[in-house]
Design a protein that fits this description.
Largest interface: A-B, 56 and 56 residues
Number of helices of chain A: 8
Oligomer: homodimer
Distance between the termini of chain A: 41 Å
Strand order of the largest sheet of chain A: 5-6-4-3-7-8-9
Shape of chain A: globular
Radius of gyration of chain A: 20 Å
Helix content of chain A: 40-55%
Strand content of chain A: 15-25%
Number of strands of chain A: 9
Chain lengths: 210, 210
């Protein structure tokens, strides 16, 4: 990749990947910055700038090769690697993540769920076992875990993060509606569902603004 | 509000609201731009700029009054209004949204879920009834619906959006992993869970970059 990539570009990368995957599925082999821009609500010059920035795939005037560009962006995103996930909390959100249709295709494989509720522990979701939170450390010792998903109540999230860190897990995808304190060598990406709903509500309140 | 507010500021607004709510719950009555910046990983000058931008609450040197500022941002976000939601799809994601702890507190009230599966229709989730998709139009005629949440399979999402539009619904919160075509007078905010997980994977792949 060509040097420093800004946060704004990184934020847009998954969108590029998603659109290119859809185009590929539709049988499109090549696309211009104009057409890609229309799909993504970006200007053609923004598209060209972004694509130059993450790797000099510029083929101005000829269009971009969909499969090549998708593969390249997939690599930048680390999707060419397998990621093994565990999910803490086997409630609605935990189960939704475990069964989310596109994750396994992108190399994100859930290998276990953890919960404390008697009626959940010992069962399985498809072929994914639901284990007791007490067995978390042992499981991590015996299995490679790349990412832990926090899908448990807010009040339990900080403690869970600390147990995960002690066990050597260094990447957290957090759904608990709280900003967690974490060591610098631990990556934490938050999904604040509320933020997204509030953006909708903002736009509803201001839809008639000049 | 003071004139035009940029998309970047709008994206940050829910974060301000969330942090101010937490501070209020902790009993904090006043906070400096320095302290708020540390919590939100923004510079004090960024904080001051943002807060000036959405309404001249600047009280430099004295700190901001937490409750006042939270109330003000809540109004800008439209959280002082009640929003009535229906959720299409009573699977994991639909149920997670219906039971998400903070939504009702922020004025987002789910009044019905819709599904087509026999074993779900006619039941209820807490006090929220699960209705058949065939009854969607009739329900919307008889009830005020402000927002429809799409939590159904990708292949059914576009058709559902069109039925909702025909019935007069003008705001969609979409969890289906697809960018939906929609008329200009319909607001659509997408939650692409995949994008957020890919950002984590990007940061994992590049954690050792210079």
């Amino acid at each position: 990749m060509a040097g420093h990539v800004s946060d704004a570009v990184i934020r847009r990368l998954p969108g590029y990947y998603r659109h290119l995957r859809e185009l590929e599925a539709m049988g499109v082999t090549s696309i211009s910055s104009q057409e890609l821009g229309e799909r993504m609500h970006l200007t053609p010059s923004q598209i060209r700038q972004d694509i130059n920035c993450f790797g000099g795939f510029g083929r101005q005037g000829y269009g971009y090769k969909v499969t090549d560009l998708k593969g390249h962006i997939g690599e930048i995103l680390g999707l060419d690697q397998q990621h093994r996930l565990i999910i803490l909390g086997a409630g609605n959100i935990g189960c939704a993540v475990a069964q989310y249709p596109t994750f396994s295709r992108e190399g994100f494989k859930t290998i276990a769920l953890f919960d404390t509720q008697e009626n959940k522990v010992g069962r399985s979701l498809g072929d994914i076992p639901v284990k007791h939170m007490d067995d978390l450390e042992e499981f991590i010792r015996e299995n490679v875990v790349d990412i832990a998903v926090l899908a448990l109540p807010k009040r339990n999230a900080q403690n869970a993060l600390e147990r995960l860190y002690q066990s050597g897990v260094r990447a957290i995808w957090n759904f608990a509606p709280i900003d967690l304190a974490h060591p610098e060598d631990m990556l934490v990406v938050n999904v604040h569902l509320s933020d997204s709903l509030q953006q909708l509500s903002y736009r509803m309140a201001h839809r008639n603004d000049p």
